[in-house]
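Handoff note, outgoing to incoming analyst
You'll be picking up this chain. Sequence as last confirmed:
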Amino acid sequence: MRNWKSRSITAIFFGCCALAAAVFLIGCGLKGNPTPLVDALPPGVKDLEVGRSSDGNRIVWTLPGGGTGVERVKIFRSALDVQNGSCPGCPAAFNLISEPLVQELRKDLGSGRVSFRDPWIKPGFHYTYKIILCDDTGYCGSESNAVSIDWKPADGNKDKAGTDDVAAPLPEK
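Most recent structure output, in case you need it:
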């Protein structure tokens, strides 16, 4: 009789220990990669601009803090076909079009201003751009403001863009 009671107590003891261990392990949640403090992420760009140049759309912005801690820029574009009536009022679908290093960007526009040329454009489209700055560890900050420009065909010629810009042209430097 004693043998049965001691086995039951032992089984109950180990069962409670296993249950407690399971609760503590599950209660801690899933572990993931550590994320940096929000203050350590690159700040978002607030002055993104777009304009037309002879060789495509040119987007220009100021690197916050002179670009300290920023290694890469993710450039996103949304393109809506206005000639063929693509879904007015639908949310814009942004696609990553380039991810240049900061040192590859043109920095000849003055203090901290950089630019990127988008040559992959077609007349008859409404383009919207936004960018995200990333640090050398791959962590990225918040999105910039979104800017838009229309490319309309000139006099029915579908190979060249018209001259009525939505945004003022930017310097060609």
